[in-house]
Description:
By secondary structure, this protein is mainly alpha-helical. The chain contains 22 helices and four strands. The protein has a four-stranded mixed β-sheet, with helices on both faces. A hairpin with a 5-residue loop joins strand 1 and strand 2. Helix 8 (160-172) packs parallel to helix 10 (197-210). The longest helix has 48 residues, at 22-69.
Amino acid sequence: MMRWSRMPRHLMSVVRMQSSNITTTKLVRLDESKVNNNIVAAAFESLKEIDNDKSRKSSFYIINNTIDNATTVEEILAISEIGLVSKQHALKAVSTLAEWASSGRVKLAEFETDIRFLKLCRMLGKENSKEKENLFSDLSTVLGITGDDEAAKLISSISLPQMVKVLSTIGAKKKRSTTLLRSLAFNIGRCSEKMDIKQCADVLYALAILNFPDEVLLEKVSADVRSNMSTTDRPSVIGSIVTSIGILRYRDPDLLDSLSTWLEKHIKECKQHILISYLLTLAYVNYKPNNMDNIIQTFKSTKQFNDVGNLNTWLDIIWSLVVLEKADNELLASVLSPDFISNLMKLKGPLLDPDSEIFKLELVRSKDKQVLMKTLIDSLSIMFPSENFVKTNFKTDLGFIIDAECALDSKLNPIPLDSPKLKSSETHQIAFMLSGFHDMCRGCHNEPNGISALNTRLVHSLGYKVLAVPYTELSTRDSLVNNVQYLKESLKNLLSEP
């Protein structure tokens, strides 16, 4: 029986008319047979398309279930002989086989040369006959139609250049999938094949853009950069590497020394922005290569040093030199002069009223540093007899706060902060400066970054002895007894310094 509800309305009325009056219908067919034949044919074709569409949808799920429930290679490869297999089905089948091969459930040799497997691979992209270990070479397969979990399974089956391209592409798209990034970092990091200098630059740039500083991968990139340094003559690539290292706050002395040596040798070919990036990166990671003075002096002697043309850029240069302790009085005066400040303020737009309530807001710590601060306060409350011996959250008006301060004599006896003895030469004012994860360099977690190092020097200039307390030492998971012991030992060592 014909299902009327599934016909288009304009066709439904014609067919009903024909069924209700046989004689009339026959007469119409005699006069307009071609027209009605076309209409009826269209009606039945419409029904056929609907049924086919339903069939295709049903087949899609049946094939999907077949792959999901497969227990052997043969069951999966058999789907290649079904006419309704889609690119999504091929991807699911190939990724399942890849996962089985990676886990040791099956061997790659069981299916890699099978014509049915190669057919599925061709559906995904161009087959790479030169590299049997690669399942496909079309990057759109990984980046376009895959889910992150599916793509992550396939990463171990593609070549190193392909993995670098995948990482570069998701970096350009700012697609921060942790699952996919971890798979890429693991597989690139453990690969024995070396990357060329351009690939190293691409990887570093992607990691910087995505803020994904995987330690193992960074170590491999560092080693590969150093091995290619002597044969490189491309300042733009070196500039990209230098910039990415600065963004990542990655402090690798060997890598930084190699980059500095290369820059000194090729400084005449380097454009201004590369040398500025070099200064900023060294400042960010608080590192001074042995030949840094040579590069800075050569840079200063060029016209481009004083011809920056941008006030913010010039301020960045001077800030970098201040952090690196290479700024002379003349350079400092250039950014402290009334004219410079006036011109800088014009770029910033209108200013708030100096008496605005906004200036009374307290600086807010990150969540992890708030937890670290609580641990410090709990420890200090055990060490000192009462609250008037310790002060917390002291505002410096220098863009940061002193986390805690106290006063001690040479024998480590605490002195009240309101005591007249505070002005005695025998009294030491101590500033506790917490260093959270984001205050430290990557690659060398015991080294503060340039901002933290500058803050410490500024606190010194206020007359304090500074006790830097890194999160790696004052543990939020350790016992209170151990934390107190650590602080006591650190204070003892601090006062023994000249």
